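writing this on my phone so excuse typos. first protein, seq and then structure
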Amino acid sequence: MNEITMKMNADELIMMALREDISSEDVTTNSVMKEYCKGEVELICKQDGVIAGLGVFERVFKLLDESTQVTFSCKDGDTVKNGEKLGTVVGDIRVLLSGERTALNYLQRMSGIATYTRQIADLLKGSNTKLLDTRKTTPNMRIFEKYAVTVGGGYNHRYNLSDGILLKDNHIGAAGSVAKAIQMAKEYAPFVRKIEVEVENLDMLREALEAGADIIMLDNMSVEDMKEAVKLTRGKAQTECSGNVTRENVARLVDIGVDFISSGALTHSSPILDLSLKNLHAV
């Protein structure tokens, strides 16, 4: 995430998070630190994992005080170890104290997603299947969570509802059939848009292929049916499988031959990576 992207998309969200935590003042900090005092605090890793969100972590402190200095000994995507010092933050002690929790919340959440994504992506190594995220993200955290997925070695599916056509079961129900839904999507959407259709069985798959779908999402189908679906689809459309995909069960999908595997768990079930700001002292 470069500086321009962050200022365009992230600053407003970070400020919302800061305002959530500091509605009027940080009364605890202001009671023990009544005036400016320069200080330094260390960013410490307390758990092995993949770090992601260092730029967001830094931006929290910069938005509180542009003169805050943040240095890192690692970069996004690096593997970090328990006990490792990852960086330092130097500035007004009041800023270091008031921004601590918001900065860590972002960094821990994003690093947890990157860590979990890396674990699943590693299980897909050697195959031609790409790991995708979903829109099952925390409200107002999507830009951060989807970025963390890419840091972990995954790929982004649609960013939002304006980003692509995905006809799911309820869209098909509203249209009346798979074929009607695809026909209506083709009539409405620009020709440059690909049309993805969610199917639950081989009959729906055949209907989607005949109607000209570009991508077929195989939702909660058996491994045997998915293998057959890949054979039927080859050369006609791309394939994606989905449905409660986690680190524990993704291995069963590796040999199916789908182009993509999507997992909502990347963003809705990743545990945080434990990080801490420690050893605050005046300098």
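second protein below, same order as before
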Amino acid sequence: MNIFYKDGEIATRNLTPGIKVYDEKLLRDGEEEPIEEYRIWNPRRSKLAAALLNGLEGLNLKNDSKVLYLGASTGTTVSHISDICDEGLIYAVEFSPVSMKKLIRLSQKRNNIAPILADATKPKYYLNKVEKVDLVYCDVAQEKQSELFMDNMNLFLKEEGYGLITIKARSIDVIQKPKKIFKDEAKKIKENGYSILEKIKLEPYEKDHIAFLVEKSF
């Protein structure tokens, strides 16, 4: 993968050298052409970066991987996946028209991002726009997040593919303890035919968040 770790930071090789996405720091390596450029990946602005820095090991994204990203927002994390899967394709689903405008501008500079203005709770509405993917990534902070995550995996995930969901406890229940919420969400996922391979808490970058890496049970 085009992911690099150094001195407690994480970076991806920049698909579009010289161009920033969200004011991230750019680092150049080498004195002779071709000079490689890297984008520092801010874990306080990307839950995936937080999960990787906290020990996520099984992401297994390749240069040509295809990804369905649910809750793409303006494209901060999407852009780093774009760096990693430089020969692949990211289907970026976002519900907000305001965020979608920025996402479209990003896709004009990165031809491996396909923005889709849609509601991730209704995946059949974009069934004819998305092929089978290697990873379904879900960052949609709402009460039924696990359900929409599994609905999308059931439709779009390859047999050998993975799912990654980042769960915000307070979006599900503001009263219940996060530990209980995470246990209940994990139970839902297992009862619907998926195995949880890794559980990664996202502190200190995100409070009361956890990431689950899952695959289909056979």
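The mean pLDDT is 95. thats all i got for now
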